Recover the amino acids of this structure.
């Protein structure tokens, strides 16, 4: 049997890195797919990519409106920032172009996610204290009224 030589994988040329933390942010599967596609298309030096909703939708199998929803989810989580572009037509008119996506460092998003979780936990603790005080007050009123 002849030994088969497989081509070596060059991680810089044929792959793109996906941070493990992306799965702990509570994103929807579609938002992760959009984020993956943006990382695939990004310029590794500028951390930017220029693609349309239609191109993203065709790549991940979703409609334009659904892609727009997922992009907004990624922006809210601090993973990307979008910038509008304009295109000048041959007759001199300016029209809207594709969005320019800036891929932000995942660490910023993780810090924001943990801060939101901490705020939610503090709010829940305050709500629980208020409910206990209200229950104690109601017991006192019942005891005094009887």
């Amino acid at each position: 049997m002849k030994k088969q030589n497989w081509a070596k994988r060059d991680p810089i040329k044929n792959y793109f890195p996906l941070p493990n933390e992306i799965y702990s942010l509570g994103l929807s599967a579609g938002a992760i797919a959009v984020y993956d596609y943006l990382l695939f298309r990004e310029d590794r030096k500028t951390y930017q990519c220029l693609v349309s909703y239609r191109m993203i939708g065709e790549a991940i199998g979703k409609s334009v409106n659904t892609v727009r929803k997922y992009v907004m989810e990624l922006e809210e989580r601090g993973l990307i920032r979008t910038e509008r572009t304009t295109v000048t037509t041959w007759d001199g008119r300016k029209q809207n172009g594709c969005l320019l996506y800036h891929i932000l460092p995942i660490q910023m998003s993780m810090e924001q996610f943990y801060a939101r979780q901490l705020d939610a936990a503090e709010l829940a603790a305050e709500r629980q204290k208020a409910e206990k005080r209200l229950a104690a007050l109601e017991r006192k009123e019942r005891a005094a009224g009887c």
